[in-house]
Structures are given as structure tokens and as C-alpha cells.
Amino acid sequence: MHFDILVEDQSGKKALDFLIPKIIGNGHTFTIHPYKGIGRIPKNLNINKDSAKRILLEQLPKLLRGYGKAYSKYSGEYKAAVIVVCDLDDKCLRKFRQELYSILDACKPKPETRFCIAIEEGEAWLLGDLQAVRTAYSKAKSNVLSAYVQDSICGTWEKLADAVYPGGSNHLRQQHWTTIGIEKSNWAEAIAPKMDVENNQSGSFCYFRDKLRELANSDN
Questions:
Q1: CATH of domain 2-122+201-218
Q2: Mean pLDDT across the chain, nearest whole number?
Q3: Among residues 39, 88, 108, 194, which one has the fewest Cβ atoms lying within 10 Å of its Cβ?
């Protein structure tokens, strides 16, 4: 099985570069396609947005149509799936999933697709393994980590910053927005290699892990 994995930013790519081989092993292939933000689903799914901007949800209708056509050419010879990974942020999960499936339903043919949504943000998957956070950052603040409620809507990246970044999220917010992105990538690179994917406490991460494995095992 080949996986085309669409993520909304570089920090997501850096984490998944380490995590996906732990999940599916070496018998499959994958390509991670990072975008420059999540954006919004366009009201008109047939309008092609400027691809140079690389905003995930704006491009998603065009992307899924393209994968559907590409995969169909190799039917029976080439098994592949699209995995869309994005943050829930403050959206309603049920409504957001319905909107995503409306994009997929408009594709003819449909590519094999799974939507995996980090609740609330991608850092929730890192915080799903507090031991990995503590191993990566020996000076991480235990009181912050122990108070975190898994997959809660709480300002997730800020919680991780409060635990591991000097001065916490208040100090990091005062920096240029690019600095926040760099720090998120640093956290992903430091924590993800140390994560135990079998015992992650984030429900949204476990959903992602299990969907990948279901598809990988279907190739056997």
C-alpha cells in the first residue's frame, strides 16, 4: 500500500516522518505533502484555488479529484490511499467531518481516503505520550504536563509551550509568527522519535494509527 498523506504544516510532516514507520513498518510506502496552513473549505467545490498558496482545505477538492483519477488508472495493480491530517481547532467535529466527506463524495472516481483530525491541534498527539515529552525535555514542567487533559480544547500548543519553552507560551507569542512555527517543528523532531505509538493516550492519534493499519493490512 502507498499512502499520500496531506498535512497542514511542516511540524506535522516532521512528526509523521518519525511516526508512520513505527505504525505501518517498512513494507509500505508513503509520501507526506505539507501545506502552508489549513484555510477553509471553498463554498464552490469546483473552483480551483491558486495552488501556489498551498493552503490545505482550499486545495482539497482539487487534490482529491486528482488522486481519484490517478489511482483509478492503476486499479488492480496499485493500491493507494489519501490520508488527510488536520487540526480541529475550534470547529465542531461532526460538522467538519461532514464537510470533508462532502468533498470526497463529489469526486468521480473517489480515491480511498481517510480524514484524521487532531483534537484540538497536532501537539495533542505529542502530548499523548507524556513520557516521550519528558524524555525529550528533561526540564519540562511536570505540573503543566500532569494538568493536561487529553484531546481537550484548551490551547494545546500553548500547553506544550508552557511545559517546555523558556518563558512559556506568553513569551513565545511575543515572537514573530515564524518563530512559533519553528518551535513547533523543533518539538515534533525532539518528541516524535521517542514516542510509543502503541500506548499513546490521545484518542485522535489512536484513530489515525488504527486507520493506517487497517488500510495497510487490507493490502495483505
A1: 3.40.50
A2: 93
A3: 108
